[in-house]
Amino acid sequence: MDAFTYRDGQLLAEQIPVTELAARHGTPLYLYSRNALLERYRAFDSALAPVDHLVCFAVKANSNLAVLQTLAQAGAGFDIVSGGELQRVLRAGGSAGKVVFSGVGKTEAEMREALDAGIYCFNVESESELRRLDRVAQSLGRRAPIALRVNPDVDPKTHPYISTGLKKNKFGVDFATAESLYREAAAMPGIEILGVASHIGSQLLDISPLLESLDKVLGLIDRLQAAGIRLRHIDVGGGLGVRYKDEVAPLPSDWAAALLPRLAGRGLRVLTEPGRAIAANAGLLVTRVEAIKDSGEKHFAVIDAAMNDLIRPTLYQAWMDIVPVTPRDGATTEYDLVGPVCETGDWLGKDRALAIEEGDLLAVRGAGAYGFVMASNYNTRGRAAEVMVDGGRAHVVRARETIDDLLRGENLL
Ligand code: LLP
């Protein structure tokens, strides 16, 4: 489903006109569709239905409590990268027993917290982390369930900032190291070996690098088995891309159809960690045109959303679709859509043909993943409100930040 469609010349969020939501909650405003989130989660869940599996939503993509709650209620697990994300999952009603903990820099405190909560698995990224986790678990009289995150050294063919599975990236351990680490781990009293994990990058539009990676990991599993180390699960990571412009993104069903035959007969539980593919197109960022100005060379529309609200265009030169909420007839002009932040790099879109006037509302599509979560308070701008729409009902799932919120914790001398 597309949760954001036009009816009678107006953009809707599920059944509610976006103009109405903007009037009620102000702009900039993040809008999420509860049903779009559920539909996308279920697409993964049913694609893996033939096997024992767990779809662990990558919390980093959108960590709003109501988003996590929606997915937890649908049965999702979660992929976390910090103690903070673990707290979010627990407070949203997610179960620790469905949590995998990724990340290259887990602290001892985070390890303890996760062990106390009883998470399902630590995705261990280095020898140093493995030893530390063994020590922390023993000090608690526990065994930490682990998978080693291997770095399959395949090129995911995506933006260099979001590719993670190349040797030159900081993530995971190489295969030779993995083999010896598994042997070490098998002898550690504080460690219980559960599986193997990999994640090669994000916004993947071609699944062949994922399959190449999978084949390499299966080879490792076979070598380990020959050495007497049996793994119970394989975590294939996240990374499936979405359509921002005209990309043809692989469907979870196509991805699973390529994946599952390779896993047949192995009895492995399958984990996956999708973030963007579940959340991106379940969200919009709504913004108002504050001013239109001309430099003689360029036309600018100054909007009230900025790089602090949505940093993907600035950081990755990401192209995000920006559409009028109430389209006007008439000639279009090519605008650079720029925010109020004092940086030349503060833009959400360039050379966009739009028929707009001051006061009009625009919507940035695909903003449900890596949108609000990457927002900052730069220029002492409060972060936007977040609203979740469910059919004809709208819930404020995070209030707009006030100046008191921004200054909390600061002191004069
Ligand atoms: N698992 C691990 C270990 C990851 O590092 C990531 C993303 C995911 C899962 C989820 O990947 P997804 O399914 O969302 O592609 N801020 C960037 C994306 C950074 C992704 C980092 N890792 C962006 O806005 O494009």
UniProtKB/TrEMBL annotation:
The active site is at 342 (proton donor). InterPro entries: Ala_racemase/Decarboxylase_C, DAP_deCOOHase_LysA, De-COase2_N, De-COase2_pyr-phos_BS, Orn/DAP/Arg_de-COase, PLP-binding_barrel. GO terms for biological process: lysine biosynthetic process via diaminopimelate. Transmembrane segments: none annotated. GO terms for molecular function: diaminopimelate decarboxylase activity; pyridoxal phosphate binding. The keyword Amino-acid biosynthesis applies. The modification N6-(pyridoxal phosphate)lysine is found at residue 60. Substrate binds at residues 276, 312, 316, 343, 370. This is Diaminopimelate decarboxylase. It comes from Solimonas fluminis. The lineage of its organism: Bacteria, Pseudomonadati, Pseudomonadota, Gammaproteobacteria, Nevskiales.
